[in-house]
Here is the input.
Amino acid sequence: MDQKLAVIDIGTNTINILVASKNSNGFHTEFFDRIPAKLGKGGMEEGILTDEAMQRGLEALSTHRDSCKLHGVHQVKVTATSAVRSASNGQDFVKKVKEKLNLEIEIIDGDREADLIWKGVRLTGLLDQERGLIMDIGGGSTEFILADANQVYWKKSYDLGVTRLAERFKAPDPFTEQAEKQMMSDLKTDMQEVWEALARYPTQRLIGASGSFNSLSMILAEGRIEELHPIHESIDMHSYVSLSEKLRRSLFQERESILGLVPDRVDTIPYSVLLIDTMLKNSDLNKMLRSSYALKEGLMGEMME
Here is the structure.
């Protein structure tokens, strides 16, 4: 019988688990779950994990540990990204998890995170000989990777995740045009190295990895998950532009009723499209693709090797 492996990915907003077994294509997904633990909530500006956030994190990890037992997992790998690595008390959380749940957390840096995202996207077949700019919007950080199937030309992790942006900008809801203009101007300055990298390694393809891009696809499909390709697909640019406008101009209560938008992204999705729009307005990117694979699939692929 095939051994089952698990990856638990501790992000700033969600804590995800992927359970898989080996097959001829690499791995077969046996189980997936996401818990919106909101680990970064309330502490990003101070650079801490609040006591409440740590408790939510412990509860989510306890649930995922139970899932590992239920599915007969032989080996589990737990990684933590932006929220834990940038928190002054991140190591306290790591110790608590070890003491209470006997799970070892590996805190990975932005470079390693970007590398694993590339490996995950590569498994979808979206990357070929043609270069693409991979963008993974997280709660604490956003990764950019210019790559094809064979190599990474440039990569960088920025502390520009949507939870971090919401706490930094405290923009009105919905965004006013003035607030939007100011935020876009700040983001353009923050991402100077992205523009330089795109000048060196031109591409017209934006490949959105997981997270926010999955949500955009789900909204465009009006919540009909069966209509979506499980691994990758193209996002129509005209449809995206209309959707971006809708998300940036709607109230929280209005976004709550949008089909396909999961409750834990209602507050941050305007910041996601603001980041994407900043990319599109300052580059030659004119084609958008979605990869449902990202960090956890990249790590699973490594483990299976």
About this structure: The chain has a mean pLDDT of 96. The chain has two domains: 4-108, 124-295. Residues 163 and 181 are 19 Å apart (CA to CA).
